[in-house]
Amino acid sequence: MPPQAFALPNATWLSLLGEDPRPWLLVADDPAARWVALTGLLDLPPDYAAVREAHAAMLSDTCTQALLERLADWEANMAVSGHNSPGFAPNLLHLLADRGLQARDDSRVEHVLDQMLAHQAASGHFMSYGTSRAASAPVWGWLLCDSHAIVEVLVRYGRGEDLRVRAALAQMGADLALTAQGPAWPCIPHSATGFRGPGRKTDLCPQVTLEALRTFGRLPADRRPDGLLETARVLLRVWQRRATEKPYMFGHGLGFKTVKWPTTWYGVASVLDALGRYPALWCGADADPADRRALAELAACLVAYTVDQGGRVTPGAVFRGFEEFSFGQKKQPSALATAQVLTILRRFDDLTEDIRAVDVRRLGSSRGGTGSVQPPRVTHRTA
């Protein structure tokens, strides 16, 4: 369907871009990019004809099928370790959902979700199976960064009413603690091996905290625990205080500002995706001008380091193993990456003037750098 067949509403956030990329997205070869544009930028419902067509084309697309084939048996998947790996099953499931895959679209996804539900600790945390530096033999156990990731995909694929997921969400709320930075989620040692991630015991874990905020942000307001807005402010202060209180291994320099595809870990896109679900941070009587400024800085970095003058995104950093995907190469604009970045950016529509006022060249990094915009790094890692 040609782009002129759709009403393209005016939006102030589009003024941050050199050109409006939506007409290009609506005729993209990648049906997943069309689906994201139709649902995430134009807010069209699932039963709209063009949305149904894009969804059907996405399901049969070779890239979608390739991702589905990578889903390994959750109960025997020891080959992929590291929750930042795009091969980690929850990350693959998020990537499929980002393409438009929904609950009950594929039996392979439902099978893995059922397996995840079957392995829950008495505490309510969901467990994963694998080895670690603290144990040579594989064991079932949980870390918050794994359990949160599992809970989020279960919620995203329609399992949020399952009593086991409700128990996990309740425990997620109970794990919220008073860290050195304020109420947030810390790194808790592995339930079976005692392994604990790096950093001070009293500090928040930025990754675990953004996972929890993003998970609760997918739920109706009456399903969320009290105090989440203050926790969102704490995560935002990690950026605000980056020059003096950098969490161990969580910097805010070029690597943070340059989106790495597929997005699996703490970075500017992930932080904005989580915080953009809490508009009270920047809107309303209780909004703090300092928080508005920080969010505007982050959004300005997302645009400056990611979006070109045509309003399109050419990946600057990618994981190896995704060469057949448009977001897995660094030579041409990616329609899917563009649609995903713009879907995040549009949530901050009423911050447009604040974003435009930011000079990213004057923003210091977590190491005291100038923050000058540089060409994206060439970084490849094995998935």
Name a few traits of the molecule:
single chain; 383 residues; mainly alpha; two-stranded antiparallel sheet; two-stranded antiparallel ribbon; 15 helices; disordered C terminus
Task: Please render the helix and strand layout as text.
Elements (H helix, E strand, L loop, with lengths): L21 H5 L4 H11 L7 H12 L1 H9 L18 H10 L8 H11 L10 E5 L2 E7 L2 H13 L6 H12 L2 E3 L2 E3 L21 H12 L10 H13 L13 H4 L2 E2 L6 H8 L13 H18 L10 E2 L16 H11 L6 H5 L27
Parallel strand pairs: 5-6
Antiparallel strand pairs: 1-2, 3-4
Helix pairs in contact: 2-3, 2-14, 5-7, 7-8, 7-9, 9-10, 9-12, 10-13
Can you describe what's shown?
The protein is mostly helical and 383 residues long. It is built from 15 helices and 6 strands. The strands form 3 sheets. A two-stranded antiparallel sheet has the order 1-2. Strands 3-4 form a two-stranded antiparallel ribbon. Strands 5-6 form a two-stranded parallel sheet. A hairpin with a 2-residue loop joins strand 3 and strand 4. Helix 9 crosses helix 10 and helix 9 packs parallel to helix 12. 44% of the residues are buried. The C terminus is likely disordered.
Question: Which strand-content bin applies to the residues?
Answer: 5-15%
Helix-strand pattern: HHHHHHEEHHEEHHHEHHEHH
Radius of gyration: 20 Å
* Share in helix: 40-55%
Mean pLDDT: 90
Give the overall shape.
Answer: globular
> How many beta strands in the DSSP annotation?
6
Q: Strands of the largest sheet, in order across it?
A: 1-2
In angstroms, what separates the terminal alpha carbons? 36 Å
Number of helices: 15
- Unreliable stretches (pLDDT < 50, length at least 5) are 367-383
By helix and strand content, what is the structural category? mainly alpha
Biggest sheet: strands, sense, closure?
2 strands, antiparallel
Q: Give the oligomer, counting copies of the same chain as homo and different chains as hetero.
A: single chain
